[in-house]
Design goal:
The complex is a heterotrimer of chains A (269), B (323) and C (341). Chain A is α/β, with parallel strands linked by helices and 269 residues long. Chain A has a domain of 154 residues: P-loop containing nucleotide triphosphate hydrolases (Rossmann fold), CATH 3.40.50.300. A 6-stranded mixed beta sheet of chain A has the order 6-9-10-3-11-12, with helices on both faces. A 4-stranded antiparallel beta sheet of chain A has the order 2-1-4-5, covered by helices on one side. In chain A, strands 7-8 form a two-stranded antiparallel ribbon. Chain B is α/β, with parallel strands linked by helices and 323 residues long. Classes of the chains: A alpha/beta (269), B alpha/beta (323), C mainly alpha (341).
């Protein structure tokens, strides 16, 4: 296989006595969607913070295009084409669509010694880029807060792509969305892959991961519990791995027993 | 008779017209505005206001007495500017800061409105353009209070000041200082707070802690909240009767303390007059062209002592809001 | 280019709704109502004369100068409680410098300016680098600067009041940049205010930096993730607020010829009130410079309107409180329509 865009090699991260990540290795290639799955507290968010340059690993290294790197900030990571779209922080609801889209890379119109924000140009770019991912925007001055959740996520993804990202890290982009809204986002992920981008897709929803993932990395308690190719996966298997398999089955048994107890009016401890 | 009277009337009318005053000048209602440097509803300024209103009633003058919501010279200046827009016949202002208020007073004079001053500004009212100044001379009053403290045996005085920066309060303390130091004593100035009694209490406690030889208190405003705090503090420190207490400008709370002997004396600047007199003087000036105060232009209105001998009478006046 | 896809849900709001949702609109309606009210009851007493109008424009100008920069800072999600004390302290620098140290006016102004830049930078650093809430840092600043104002003036000039500035600077033409009348009794400060409002509004709505201000206040993490130098934006704004304090101090000291330890007291709240009346949110991310200008005008009209109407000043603060509450309620309604997140 070709050199991966980003590769984590035996990465560990500790917070005092807590082992947040231990010996994690993961690689993402161009045109590939890697789904990062795991329960709350499995280490997903720590891993993406490391991949996106927000935190540094205590052990292990990162490599971009096979070259070891040391990110000092998200800006650093971004300069190498790694863009992260966070679930809730992606966009600013009080600002207009075009301003959101061009945030941090505003086009400038010079007027004598003064430099103004080029609203028309920003609007044109935003309109075109959003159209590429299938969102028609008539009113670019509309506040982003008036868009649907799926559209907001799509806007954030489109923006990251426009900014030159080669690898998108999407942090729970669908978890707060309904079925139809999630579908919009998932469609964009597939399109991004088709354009040759690498995608790290973080979720704890198997239904969202399964249809788009090429590979699945399952984290459990800071360790890789398993890495599977598309072909070896089905929903049942994924579910089993995700919840920690046996643990989840035990939990199921417990809950059934509790329900039975309540039905028969037995004392509950 | 009839003829004679009308002849005299004509003559008088001619005289009045000649001197530039309209006939029956007294019949025409005048409009006079007073502007103070702090709020006009505290226990001091409300008595001034009473004097203003009484003068308005007595002399057929429409009066207004206004001030900012707290000590604020900038706002006072803005109020003077607004007052000019109301086109009054006369204006009187407390010159808490002559440098600051001079341009506004000048605007009034330019607009043909005569200006008098009261309360603050004894040292500078002439330069500002005020015709007459009705006030206590802080230095003089302080000096008087200081001499009296010395006569009562004071050697180490703390002078309390609740509005550091207010010229007249600083002058009072400086006056006390001059008189006491002249007699070989010592005066230190202690800032207190009107808004926060705990500050006042702490300031006095630490003053006595630092220097147990302090034997007199002067300067503080008797009508404010501090005397009650001071009284309590002295009791707690077991100094009641051992320290000579004196205030400026009495309030209802402090007058009984004079009777009880807790307070030796108070020096009054007679606030009622500070409201009444400027209205009266302005009315007289506007109607008859006369000015009081002689060459200095100062109508001194302070340094009045209240002690055991006259406290009963003053108490009645204070209860009537006229003091 | 425009593919009409079924899931596009942005729609144009009717013109009426769009106008109502602008943060300034409620404030503008309010100020007109107030003005008409006072014109009716105080009109015959001088409220409508040029001098009367100038009197509330002058007040609006003074609070508006600091209100403008405070608004930018609020939009960026930070607070400055020390601006009133800054006015007092920098005024004292100018007065002490010219009267006691014998400095020429330009030097005294430069000293005050330099101090303000340093102070704003220090506050900004404490807030963004050490993560101390600006509320706390500037609350400390409020007391620190006020106390220093009294302390310095007392130890240098023996009293917390410095007069004679006009004598000290003589005929220095620089003073006419800050003091004096534009026209009749309208202060030069009015021009500064209008200028600041125009510059502030352009920076906020028409430049990259303005976009960043909104973003920094709306969501610092989103801003940071978009590569915006959050720390730099905030520090610049803290400096801008302090510098506007110097401007107001210069206007006050040079037109009044004196400084005292009370100057500027309460301006921190008045500035915040004008901003909130004008539709700026204390939680950051939204606001308008024009709105703040309307808020400042409201303050001036209420303050002087009460006087012209012959109402006791005792009610001023109560009315201000009421207006503030009203403005916040109106803004809350307007905002509910915009943001569902």
């Amino acid at each position: 296989m070709a050199t991966p865009i980003i590769e984590a090699r035996s990465v560990s991260r500790y917070f005092g006595t807590v082992v947040a990540l231990k010996d994690i290795s993961i690689a993402v290639h161009a045109g590939e969607v890697v789904c990062l799955l795991g329960d709350n507290g499995a280490g997903k968010s720590t891993l993406i913070k490391i991949l996106s340059g927000l935190e540094r690993p205590d052990e292990g290294t990162l490599a971009i295009d096979g070259q070891p790197v040391n990110f000092r900030s998200p800006r650093d990571a971004f300069a190498r084409g790694i863009a992260t779209v966070y679930q809730d922080l992606a966009v600013l609801p009080q600002m207009s669509i075009s301003r959101n889209f061009m945030l941090g890379m505003e086009p400038i119109r010079k007027f004598g010694p003064f430099r103004f924000f080029d609203e028309a140009k920003a609007g044109a770019i935003a309109r075109e880029e959003l159209a590429k991912i299938g969102i028609t925007v008539n009113h670019l001055k509309q506040k982003v807060g008036t868009m649907s959740g799926g559209e907001r996520q799509s806007l954030a993804i489109a923006r990251a792509e426009y900014r030159g990202a080669r690898l998108l890290i999407l942090d729970e982009p669908t978890s707060a969305l309904g079925v139809n809204e999630a579908a919009i986002v998932l469609r964009h992920v597939i399109r991004a892959r088709a354009r040759g981008l690498g995608v790290v897709f973080i979720t704890h929803n198997v239904h969202h991961a399964l249809p788009i993932g090429d590979r699945f990395v399952i984290l459990n308690r800071g360790r890789v519990a398993g890495t599977f190719a598309r072909a070896e996966m089905d929903e049942a298997a994924l579910n089993r791995h995700m919840g920690g398999g046996a643990e989840f089955e035990a939990l199921q048994r417990d809950l059934v027993a509790l329900a039975d107890q309540l039905k028969t009016g037995a004392t509950v401890h | 008779m009839k003829i004679t009277r009308s002849v005299i009337g004509l003559a008088a009318g001619a005289l009045l017209s000649a001197s530039g005053l309209a006939a029956h000048a007294e019949d025409k209602q005048l409009y006079i505005i007073g502007v103070f440097h702090a709020d006009v509803s505290n226990s001091f300024s409300s008595v001034v206001k009473k004097g203003v209103e009484q003068a308005g009633k007595d002399l057929n003058v429409k009066v207004e007495f206004v001030g900012p919501d707290k000590f604020d010279v900038v706002q006072e200046g803005q109020l003077i500017e607004a007052a000019i827009a109301k086109k009054p016949d006369g204006l009187f202002v407390s010159l808490a800061d002559c440098d600051a208020l001079k341009p506004m007073v000048q605007q009034a004079i330019d607009a043909g409105i005569p200006v008098m001053s009261f309360n603050s500004g004894a040292s500078c009212f002439k330069q500002v353009g005020s015709l007459v100044h009705v006030a206590e001379d802080g230095l003089e009053a302080g000096n008087g209070a200081g001499e009296r403290l010395v006569a009562l045996g004071a050697k180490n005085v703390i002078c309390l000041n609740h509005e550091v920066g207010n010229a007249i309060l600083e002058d009072r303390c400086n006056g006390i200082k001059a008189a006491v130091e002249k007699a070989g004593g010592k005066v230190s100035i202690v800032p207190t707070s009107l808004a926060d009694p705990s500050v006042t209490k702490g300031a006095i406690e630490s003053a006595f802690l630092k220097d147990p030889t302090i034997d007199a208190i002067g300067g503080e405003w008797g009508g404010g909240p501090s005397p009650a705090v001071i009284d309590q503090t002295l009791t707690e420190l077991n100094l009641q009767g051992k320290v000579i207490v004196s205030y400026f400008d009495p309030g209802l709370d402090t007058l009984p303390m004079i009777k009880e002997g807790k307070i030796a004396f108070e020096t009054s600047q007679v606030p009622f007059n500070q409201g009444y007199l400027p209205v009266e003087f302005l009315a007289a000036y506007l109607r008859y062209g006369v000015l009081p105060g002689g060459p200095t232009g100062v109508v001194s209105n302070g340094g009045f002592f209240i002690d055991k001998t006259n406290v009963d009478k003053i108490t009645d006046l204070v209860k009537g809001g006229i003091y | 280019m425009t593919m009409a896809l079924p899931h596009s849900r942005t729609r144009e709001l009717p013109l009426g709704r769009r106008i109502v949702e602008r943060p300034e609109v409620g404030a503008a309606i309010g100020v007109i109502v107030l003005w008409v009210f006072f014109a009716i009851i105080g009109g015959s007493d001088g409220f409508l004369t040029t001098r009367g109008i100038a009197s509330y424009l002058n007040i609006a100008a003074q609070v508006g100068i600091v209100g403008t920069t405070v608004t930018l800072l609020l939009i960026a999600g930070e607070f400055d409680l020390s601006i009133g004390s800054m006015v007092g302290f920098s005024g004292m620098i100018i007065a002490l410098g010219t009267t006691q140290a014998g400095m020429p006016l330009w030097l005294a102004l430069l000293c005050a300016l330099a101090f303000a830049v340093l102070y704003g930078y220090a506050v900004g650093m404490l807030v963004v680098r050490w993560n101390i809430p600006s509320f706390i840092v500037t609350l400390a600043g409020l007391f620190l600067l006020r106390g220093a104002t009294i302390g310095f003036s007392r130890s240098i000039a023996q009293q917390p009041y410095i007069g004679g500035v006009k004598n000290a600077i003589g005929t220095d033409p620089l003073q006419y940049l800050f003091a004096g009348k534009l026209w009749e009794s309208l202060d030069v400060g009015f021009l500064w205010w209008i200028g600041l409002v125009i510059v502030g509004a352009i920076v906020l709505t028409k430049t990259k930096f303005g976009n960043w201000i909104f973003a920094v206040g709306g969501s610092p993490s989103a801003a940071r993730a978009s590569g915006i130098p959050v720390a730099r934006v905030k520090i610049i704004l803290f400096i801008a607020v302090s510098v506007s304090g110097v401007l107001l101090a210069a206007i006050q000291v040079l037109s009044l010829g004196s400084a005292d330890s009370f100057r500027g007291q309460g301006k921190e709240f008045e500035a915040a009130i004008t901003a909130v009346i004008g539709g700026t949110s204390l939680s950051g991310g939204t606001g308008s410079i024009i709105g703040t200008a309307i808020g400042a005008l409201t303050l001036g009209i209420v303050r002087q309107g009460l006087f012209f109407a012959g109402v006791d000043y005792d009610w001023y603060q109560a009315i201000l409180g009421l207006l503030l509450l009203l403005a916040v309620i109106i803004n809350q309604f307007a905002r509910r329509n915009v943001s569902k997140s």
